[in-house]
Design a protein that fits this description.
The complex is a heterotrimer of chains A (354), B (270) and C (284). With 354 residues, chain A is an alpha+beta fold. Chain A contains 8 helices and 19 strands. Chain A has 2 domains: 226 residues, P-loop containing nucleotide triphosphate hydrolases (Rossmann fold, 3-Layer(aba) Sandwich); 113 residues, OB fold (Dihydrolipoamide Acetyltransferase, E2P) (Beta Barrel), CATH 2.40.50. In chain A, the strands form 4 sheets. Chain A has a 6-stranded mixed beta sheet with strand order 6-7-8-3-9-10, with helices on both faces. Chain A is elongated and about 80 Å long. Chain B is an all-alpha fold. In chain C, 76% of the residues lie in helices and 0% in strands. Chain C is built from 14 helices and no strands. The chains are: A alpha+beta (354), B mainly alpha (270), C mainly alpha (284).
Amino acid sequence: MASDALLRLQGVVKQFGHFTALHGVDLDIHEGEFFTIVGPSGSGKSTMIRLLVGMDELTHGAIWLRDKRIDETPANERPTCMVFQSLALFPHMSVGQNIEFPLKLRNVPAADRKSRALELLDLLRLPQSYYSKRISQCSGGEKQRVALARALAFDPEILFFDEPLSALDYRLRKTLEKELKDLHHRTGKTFVYITHSLEEAMVMSDRIAIMKDGRFEQIAVADEIYSRPVSRFVAEFMGEVNLFEVSTEDGSTLSGAGLTGNAPSGLAAGSKGLLMVRPEYIRFVADGGTADYTVKGRLLEEYALGSRIQYEIETTEGQTLTVEKLREDRTTSALGGEVTLGFDEANTHLIEGD
Amino acid sequence: MPTSRSTRIVLLIYGLLTIFLLYLPLVSVGFASVSRARYLSFPITRYSTKWYAEALESGTVRDLLLTSVTVAAIVTVLSVIIAFFGALAFARYNWRYRSTFQKLILLPIFFPQTVLGLALLMWFNALGVIPSWKTAVVAHLVWIAPIATLIVAIRAYSFDPALEEAARDMGANTPTILREITLPLLMPGLVSAGLFAFLLSWGNFPLSLFTTGADSTLPEWLYAKMVSGYSPLVPTLGIMSVVASFVLILTAFAVMWLIKAMRDSKAAQT
Amino acid sequence: MQRLNQKLGFLSALPMLAVFAIALFAPLIVVALFSIMPPKVFSIANTPDFSAYSVFFSQGYYKSLLWSLGMALAATVILLVICWPLAYGMAKVFKSFTLFLTLAVVMSLFVSENIRLFGWVLTLMKGGLIEGHFRAWTSVGFDSPLYGVGIIVFGLVYVYLPFMLFPLAQGIAMVPDDARQAAADLGATRWQIFRQIDVPLAAPGIMVGCLLSFVLAAGAVAEAKILGGQAVITIADDIETAFTFGQDWPLGSALSMTLIGIIGALALFGISRVDLDQVMGRKR
């Protein structure tokens, strides 16, 4: 089957006994992109990567790599390679032997293997002296780089990552996220990354797929997923968000959630939807100030988040809203006091029918 | 919970006492082996090493030792091979009958050895096989290979299955994975399993008793002499057998320590 | 991968299974067949008559079975009591001494049990290590404790100590320290911690330890023969005699089947309640 996709999934179903982990998933991954699959635990993302790498067999459907169907091909015959969550570095081999392992399997002569391993150490910014170090002598970040070098030595068509950064501390993770993105640029390889951390996905990816209960909820570029989620799940998964359950009878009068304003243009007469606004787009409206939508509530709590302040407000309808303001824009209202909040339609997104 | 100093000391003394009692009988045997008198009575008045000299010159003793060593060596090699694969089936591969297999492995360990020995004797008889040291190897194997499997399995449990998956992902087939990844990683377990196998076979008598036929191993001969007709060679050979075991253990430890030291110094140079 | 795991699992189990088939199951079947043969035959090509099993009751063999089981039970209870503090020490208190203790106990296992039991004879007999020296110093002698039921139980306790100690220590090591600390913090006494935390969480180890000690002790011969001077005949001794001096294979087989039945039922009951993966520390 000819297609412009490098990797194509068609109706992939995976069942474990009576439990269905993946319900007929379709996906195209393009050459050279950094594609991330994000989902909470139990969403099916780990099952997905094990199928893609060939460590599990799918129940129905097909996986194509360019024009070749590969879902029957065992892992050791697929031209793809994975960086494991545990990294799976061989503890009985040196750093160099680890990196050379895939080359040794292909009977590459020792001298060529070594020069390639040294090149890769350079590429990963590890000193060449690490060649003969033992794995146990490497730090967490160094192990990460060795695992990457080993996967690159394999020279895979696609490089898969199974949450390799999840065990590292915050700062090291941030550094490695950037390095990984940089490595993606420098190598031009196709990266497919699995994570439960949206933050990680946003920093690195070209495109993100959000997974839930064995299905993709949305596949799009990071910005779009953030500003135009297709469902409540995606909206809430992508960080703090305020969602108003709204409806309109006649297409112009808005009702629901204590909001005052006109019905959003996308909302048809007699239908309902979720009006989404991110916390940073809500402002405190003083007496006489204007906004497309306003809502009244009581200031419950405020939290200092470094450069910003986060407020928690309970609306008259009993809904709790989150508002974030820069420090200089903080409100003068006292805790427990009545406030009016406002935001404009341009900063909202309507999720229809959810 | 912090353990008080006095509890710690009491437990320590208790532990030392246990070790003392565990080895006290060997002390008696040791003294007996160097007593000159043919009929032993404590306190020993005259010491002599003549029984050792006699033991070393005796052709019977040489035959006993040879049989014991042969059986133990063959049992060791076979047990280690069976245990390597057995441990993978026990601990590593997720196959349908894994938990059944695990329980099966424990069966011979629970089995009364005397009964097992006799059952094998009848079975060999039914097959028309004349018992000799070779049939004893089979008898030892059915008891020792499962123990060796358990020892290797402990090691197999402690290594990450992702290592094998990673090797497969990079293109390695099953034999390559076994040779390059699994075998080196299980090596320490295999060495201890081999040591256990040798020593357990070396010291075993309930199984040998009925399955060696005309041949006889050292523990078997000792047992026969203990139950009927004392020989002053019993303590002597007992001590020689014990010393041989301990020398083997210490050698094994020394070798392992040496290998580790060599590897560390090699890593430190680079 | 599941398919591959199935295949590899089965293939790697094969050598072990082959050994079991030719050296465990086949002999067991032979024993089972012999047990239903008429008395004193040496071939299974006879008409079965089950007479050997009736001899079990009529000739009082059940007494030796009861002695064996009773002494095994006594030994198991004693072992549980004396091993607990030591196992606790190994799992939670000692540091490098745990390794030393482990090595010392394991090394004692490699000494043939008959040599160790014989050593006790030399230690405890009249004119032995203890009485001999005692008499030499005080010129007062005392009777040897050898050749009685008590000393047989002592021998069982001595020989099977490692089989109780190690599973118990492994079981206690599985009790998380913070659970004990939390219980103490909530006001539990030492006894309450022992009853409510240690015993339930160490249960797999206790189970395996008791099972091993009991089953091995129930099938023991050497303790009664060497230390007990056959003051009591154990069932395994009867089995041995039936085969050797008695030359009655069907009787020996019937006795064996009875012992195997009891031990097998106990072992299966115990093993099926223990998750080996958990006890041995499997990762996933």
